[in-house]
Amino acid sequence: MRLIPTSMLKEGAELAKPIYDCYGRVLVQKNMKLTKNMIARLQVGGVTYVYIRDEYTEDIIVEPLIEEEYRQEAIMKIRKVFESFQPEDIHKSTYLLDSAATTVFDVAQDLITELDKKDEAIQFLSDILVIDDYVFTHSLNVAMYTLVLGKKLGLNEKQMETLGVGALLHDIGKILIPSHILNKPTQLTDEEFELVKAHTEYGFDILRRQDQFSLVVAHCAYQHHERIDGSGYPRGLKGNDIHQFGKIIAIADVFDAMTSNRVYRDAMLPHDAMEVLYGGAAIKFDKNMVEQFKKTIALYPNGITVLLNDGRKGIVTKQHPHLFHRPVIRIVEEDGREVAPYDIDLSKVLNVMIRDTEQVNLTTK
User: Fold this and answer.
1) Beta strands in the chain (DSSP E)
2) Which of 4, 18, 104, 266 is such that its CA lies 20 to 30 A from the CA of 260?
């Protein structure tokens, strides 16, 4: 399978992965050949990249970090949890809130168990989803990125559970922000941005009042927009005044926001988003955490087309453990001419580097 931008899709392209909506419903089935109208709907729906089939890449496999069925189930559970904390329900039923808390802890534990089974790089979580309501999918993605980073940092079992719950609920305060502001396709006014920023305080207030959650979980909601140079919100905390979990979730939150499809912009590719994080390392984000996070991410996911520094063009076929920036590349073009495909391993050919990702469709036979 090959990862390409929807802007470059051509009629007749065959999907290698299904397209889902935020309710877990399949919008376009795997193996479907796309028509012009379907391509237009994907573009309007905010899908930036899709996986397609072609003869160059039949053997390229993109393993999900968690199984798609469980991913969709987890998103629905997160949705129900958030709905349990709606202002009109929050004081009505202790049972409802206890049940929601149990669900969050169960999802966090399930994620920890699933991620413990994996030793490969995270490959582009937000590539095949039409997002009608971004918050729930974002919460799951952030939890996965957060837990992988937490594991890399050597957190113990109890810390991982607390971190996972905090990550799943870091945006719970957004239930109090009007959806037309959260999903606004144009730039927010100053007043609207101040309202959105208040979700950190709303989330802290919601969670600190619930006996089911520790104060650390509440601070995950409170501090995930703080920055170590004091430029964040809501309190402008600096350095060690920010809880370790707040620093971890901040990195995962920003990375997923940049690599997700949004109503107001297309998703970035992982290597571009990582460059932004690196630009803020030691200024806005903990430098060691950013460096450890980079070691968990496939900067160039399997199936993406890349341009090398020697002018050759190819497709990423395989990741190397601990060398995710030096994958195996299937060369398909040299000097602008199609060649018989062959693979090169960038972990062994050190004078060859990826210069850029290629946004032009490869010619297929």
Assistant:
1) 2-5, 19-20, 26-28, 49-52, 305-308, 313-318, 328-334, 337-345, 354-357
2) 104
